[in-house]
Each structure stands twice: as structure tokens, then as C-alpha cells.
């Protein structure tokens, strides 16, 4: 798809870098197909460096975040870009997702609460599960709106070793 690009940048050269420090940067059009491609590219970047469970958590969280951007932040406008950057460091994978869509509703950053599921299947709520997972699986979740950009940052912990 036009406008999709993958950039892989080495760690900045400021002397010796910690073992395994890597940076992933990907800017792409906000569309379900390009979100899938971004997920594959992010997983491929860290393949062999994180466990299968950590890779699954990374994909799940990023899919929820980026699909929410496509569906809700850009929504009817239908056009826009998403920038995803991931830094692998000792404390985990530090992720930053940036877009120029509508601001994130404050309720998304409230403490994680699973929506009420004590009801018949037909009455299950449609929303709320994705943000529950995002808040539950990440650390240091932070959001800021700056100069027309949404900046969502979080960290996914990695197992030692």
C-alpha cells in the first residue's frame, strides 16, 4: 500500500549500548490491512529476542491500540497515519503509538475494570474489553495530546534472561 514504510534504526552510537538494545520504527496508513502488516513487522523485528508469550502479548496490545485508532480516532475521516516505535531495553519493550485523529477519551485510561459479563450472551457489551486488556497487560501507560497528535506510551515487561 502506498505510504507504508518500515524503518529499522540501529541504537544511537553513544558508546557501548546495552546487549540487545534495538529500535523499531514504522509509519503507515491507518487501515486494518496495514495494521496487520505493522504487527507482523514488529513481531519479526524482535523474533528470537522475546518469548512466544511476550510476542503474543505485544501483538495483542498493539492490535487493540492500533485497531482502535483506525476505528475510533480516524473513524469516518478514513484517512490518517499511525507511527509505531518500539525500543527494546532491559526493563521491557517501550512502545509509543502516535496518530493525528480525535483525542483519546479519558475513560480509556481509568483503572482496568472488566465490563459486566454476568448477563445473557445477546446482552454482552460491545466495548470495553480491549482497553481492559491494554491497561491490564501494560505498565507505565501514559497518554498525552500535543499539537494535534495523540501520543500513547506504555511498556511491556520482558522475562529476565
Question: Which CATH first-tier class would you pick?
Answer: Alpha Beta
Q: Strand portion, in percent? A: 25-35%
* CATH H-level superfamily title: Histidine kinase-like ATPase, C-terminal domain
Low-confidence segments, given as residue ranges, are 1-18
Q: Could you give the count of β-strands? A: 6
**Biggest pleated-sheet summary:** 6 strands, antiparallel
Structural class of the secondary elements? alpha+beta
What's the architecture in CATH terms? 2-Layer Sandwich
Average of per-residue pLDDT values:
82
Q: Return the CATH topology.
A: Heat Shock Protein 90
Total number of distinct structural domains = 1
Helix-strand topology string: EEHHEEHEE
Spatial gap, N to C terminus: 38 Å
Which strand order does the major sheet show?
Answer: 1-2-3-4-6-5
- The 3D shape can be described as globular
Count of helices?
3
Oligomer: single chain
Radius of gyration: 16 Å
**Residues in helices, as a percent range:** 25-40%
Summarize the helices and strands and which ones pair or pack.
Elements (H helix, E strand, L loop, with lengths): L4 E5 L12 E8 L2 H15 L5 H23 L6 E9 L2 E8 L29 H9 L1 E8 L2 E8 L5
Antiparallel strand pairs: 1-2, 2-3, 3-4, 4-6, 5-6
Amino acid at each position: 500500500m502506498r505510504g507504508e514504510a518500515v524503518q529499522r534504526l540501529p541504537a544511537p552510537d553513544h558508546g557501548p549500548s546495552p546487549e540487545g538494545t534495538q529500535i523499531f520504527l514504522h509509519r503507515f496508513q491507518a487501515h486494518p490491512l496495514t495494521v496487520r502488516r505493522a504487527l507482523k513487522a514488529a513481531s519479526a523485528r524482535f523474533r528470537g529476542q522475546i518469548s512466544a508469550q511476550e510476542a503474543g502479548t505485544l501483538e495483542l496490545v498493539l492490535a487493540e491500540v492500533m485497531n482502535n485508532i483506525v476505528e475510533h480516532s480516524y473513524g469516518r475521516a478514513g484517512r490518517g497515519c499511525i507511527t509505531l516505535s518500539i525500543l527494546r531495553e532491559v526493563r521491557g519493550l517501550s512502545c509509543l503509538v502516535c496518530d493525528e485523529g480525535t483525542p483519546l477519551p479519558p475513560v480509556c485510561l481509568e483503572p482496568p475494570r472488566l465490563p459486566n459479563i454476568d448477563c445473557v450472551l445477546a446482552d454482552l457489551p460491545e466495548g470495553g474489553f480491549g482497553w481492559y486488556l491494554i491497561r491490564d497487560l501494560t505498565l507505565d501507560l501514559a497518554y498525552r495530546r500535543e499539537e494535534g497528535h495523540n501520543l500513547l506510551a506504555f511498556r511491556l515487561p520482558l522475562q529476565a534472561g
